[in-house]
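Page 42, continued from yesterday. The earlier attempt failed because a stray header line got pasted into the input along with the sequence. Redoing it now with the clean sequence only.
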Amino acid sequence: MAVLKVTRLSGLGATLLVMLIGSPAWAHDPVFGLGPHVLYKGGVEVATEVHTEKAGDEQDTELGLELVYGLTGDWAAGIELPYARKEEGPQSASGTGDVSLFTKYRFWRHDILGAQESAAVLLKVKTDSGDDNATPALGTGTTDTILGLTYGYESLKWYRWASLRYRRNGENDAGLRRGDKILFDLVGGWRPTPPSYYEPDTVWLLELNGEYGERAELNGVELANTGGTEWFLSPGIFWTKRNFAVKAGVQIPIASDLNGHQEDTDYRAKLVLEWHL
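This time it went through. Structure tokens are written below.
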């Protein structure tokens, strides 16, 4: 009888841990890559984000506000409102960036004892809404579309994600079309201590991020000094306490094969503060 009670308690405990992992408080996504996390029905996520990147004498910094709403338990939609600052040598400008609308649908979920696997698709549209008359321009002057596919595995100790995104860029009024991009991400995560709802939870992350860009075109003619491939190794952290989370990371370039004469990326960094309401 004692053995039976212990077995039942163990099974109940494992089930509760699965429920914790699947709840909004424990769901995680990578810092730079794409993950399958969605909100519960009627849930609201508010996030503020600072993203900066530097390449040669060019530095971009963006402060963003992201709002997400759970349409169902597997489908979420949201909006990104950015404020940008750009520096190119002696010139600098700041103001409203391009607003983005997005939706994510989790089409597969598999719960096992102490872990969860899931997969989702993403559609994101970056609108032509930024100030592209500034010098340097704060908007791209185009409407761009991003399609993404992502897989994630979350357990009490280990995490892993994989994602693939395709970005289709539009053409601006001057006939310039930036090259389309393919983004690939592999991510691993490790939780050093078992989670507890009443205590802070820390997950350490390590990402491998790859980007391939086609050459840009001006009135149908390819531009030589555009496009190419870059790879980054990106350490990061996801710190959570109840419905509040801090997510941060740095992208360190490890390989580059850019076409023509282009400045390699020096670094990229990102800090995100999230609230689930």
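Notes: The domain at 2-276 is CATH 2.40.160.40 (Porin).
Reminder to self: strip header lines before submitting.
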